[in-house]
Amino acid sequence: MKIEVYKLESIRPIVLMPVREKLLAGGYTAFPSAALDFPDDGIDFLRLLVKDPITTFPGRISGESLKDIGILTDDWCLIQKGIEARPNDLVAAIIEGQFFIKRYKPRYRPNNTLRELKLQSANPDFSDFDITDQTEFQLWGVVTWTFRNWRKL
């Protein structure tokens, strides 16, 4: 799964009014109150999504190696540099000169030093990357959000 990285064009607030009703993904319930059509608080989406505009970059994903966790070609993501990757995070990495997004899978020794590092795909048709001392590798950033456009307007 590869990625194109962009620069944020603006950090102006984007304030939207939230839906006050719980958005259920299950069965039917009673009708919500009509008063919920007029929420009073707004959400600044940029502030919600971007904690540090200087170190956050949007990226467009291509490839199907993460399809089993719901990340597909043409999805977008936000990548933040300068934060430590944790096990199972999605990370943006440069491997052998190419940008990839993979699942971060470190294994540690009992003294907490890194024993091995695997960057894992989520599709059996794609192999994982076993990072060794001989691998040309740079952990570029941590993926903090992914997005999909469900309907083009």
Q: How many beta strands in the DSSP annotation?
A: 10
> Stretches where pLDDT falls below 50 for ≥5 residues?
none
Task: Classify the helix fraction into a percent range.
Answer: under 10%
**Strand fraction:** 35-45%
Separation of the first and last Cα atoms? 26 Å
Largest sheet: 8 strands, antiparallel
Backbone shape: globular
Counting helices, strands and paired strands, the structural category is mainly beta
Average predicted local confidence, pLDDT: 86
Order of helices and strands: EEEHEEEEEEE
Compute the number of helices. Answer: 1
List descriptors.
153 residues; mainly beta; eight-stranded antiparallel sheet; two-stranded antiparallel ribbon
Task: Give a structural overview.
The chain is mainly β and 153 residues long. Helices cover 3% and strands 38% of the residues. It has one helix spanning 45-49; strands at 2-5, 15-16, 43-44, 56-62, 76-80, 90-95, 98-108, 114-120, 129-131, 137-147. The protein has an 8-stranded antiparallel β-sheet, with no helix packed on it. Strands 2-3 form a two-stranded antiparallel ribbon. It starts with a strand and ends in a 6-residue tail after the last strand. The mean pLDDT is 86.
